[in-house]
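1st attempt posting a full record on here, be nice pls
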Amino acid sequence: LSYISGVTVLGTPAEVYFFGTQYWVILVGIACMGVTVAFVYLPVFLQLQISSSYQYLELRFNSAVRTAACVLFIIDELLFLPIVLYVPSLAFNQVTGVGLHLIGSIVCAVCIFYTSVGGLKAVVWTDTLQILLMFFSVILVIVIGTINIGGVGEVWKRASDGGRLQLWNFDPNPLERHTFWSLVIGGYIYWTAFNSVNQTMVQRYLALPNLRQAQAAMGMFTAGILIFLSFCCFAGVLIYATYYDCDPLSAKMIKAEDQLLPLYVMQTTHYILGIPGLFIAGVFSAALSSLSTVLNSTTAVIMTDILEPVCHCKLTGIWKSVLARGLVIVLGLISIGCLFIVEHLGSVLQVVYTLGAIAAGTSFGVFSLGILFPWANTKGALTGAIAGATLIGWISIGSQAAVASGKLAPEKLPLSVEGCSTVKDEFSVQYFNVSPVMEPLSYSTFSSPTPHPHVSRSEDDVFVLYKLSYQWLTPLGFCTVMVVGLIVSFCTGGCDEEKLNPDLFTPLVRNWLLRRRRQREEAGETKEPVGDGELDREVYSVEFIPMDERHVNANGSSHVISANVDETAGLINKTSHRFFLLALSDLI
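the predicted structure (as tokens):
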């Protein structure tokens, strides 16, 4: 939860408020993600027991692919860090008036301190406490708000009257912001990309003793995120039921879409001592858990996957510790500086999906090439990565530039301001901004509201791909890498399965490779592994050993006892075309 929770707390309710409950359908994709990660990707990393997920790419392809993926990861985290800081700063600014950049600096300083001093252990413990606080605060606010409004039935009635209850939009138009297809397919690939191969998650899986416990943890994570996202989506419906006749953004009660939930909390729970503060603490907890995770994992990738293999820096002892702390500080300072950019972009949820797609779709595609397709080679992986990152980077940056310039704006569902003149009787004006730091909001501020610009505008001069739904960006990047990578691999000779270490593949493909080798052994054919994914001075036996019969080490990882096989003269020189068709037929 810690990787996305800070954005989810504020971004999801705002998304549902402005665009309806269609976003709720993303839970279907997330549920499928949990199954895919647990049974397709987790077994590979737990089998290899590597310290970094990007080490896999060097084992499967070569160091160039590993370095390229690491650079993408670092860029992605540098784009994500300022968004994480922006979330609590925005919420605290709403209730106190303290400047965004000052709040962001303080939050970052606190997080840098306990991350650099405590390392991964501090991150795990603080994340646990922060996530519990975040859950409790959000649930408590929803319960209180539902009671105040008259129950769940009244909430659904107002949402239905306002056209917010939408679940079955099957429009295939990829320019439509939310449809059943974009949320199920796009949500599935986006969430799988981040939870299957991203270092921030893989480092946690590898901390568990065996595959069974890692799969159980993945199941609990999936259940937790489904429940939490459901609460956040309901919070968006609840906010609309509260402001169904007076949109706060149109009435200028807030400056940004993502301030909706903080405003709602201040207005509906102000009479209960401590609840507003508890909610703000929950938002800060969500942000700190995300920030600490990103800082720790990014530092680990820079040191493990960049400095040591690429720059050949062999640091030990105190110097390694000093460098790690220094990197955490530098990353924190960069994120503070980028706050000036983030505040001019749109909804934080859309920004995260859009910018995150550059690295998420590309990296996920490269890992999937290696884990699922034995015939994918280094040339295909590199070419696919370049093609995917270039395409999605161009679309993501172009669309965000169009949003920032005002040329592109999503069309929101209808919003009303007819009841704004009666707000003074229901909520005291002093609770719109409770801090003496800010000038109190007067009745005249919202007695003559300006309608929010949700009306249609001409976007003919905006390039069509910039108008693509942000949910489709990660799938587009993933598919680009897969298609280009497989075509280039096929055209450049593919990769013979006899050269490959079966442990580098998902269990289904691994067992297929071992079965093929047993068949070749029976026919008297063996090959010495050379090239992509080769074994170090070892030739695998072709004996097939099922997963449940493998020897399990004390740490829970399994292995196949291999034996050297004498090289024979009966090597078969098949073409890559024949291998491709034969492999495809066996998989089917």
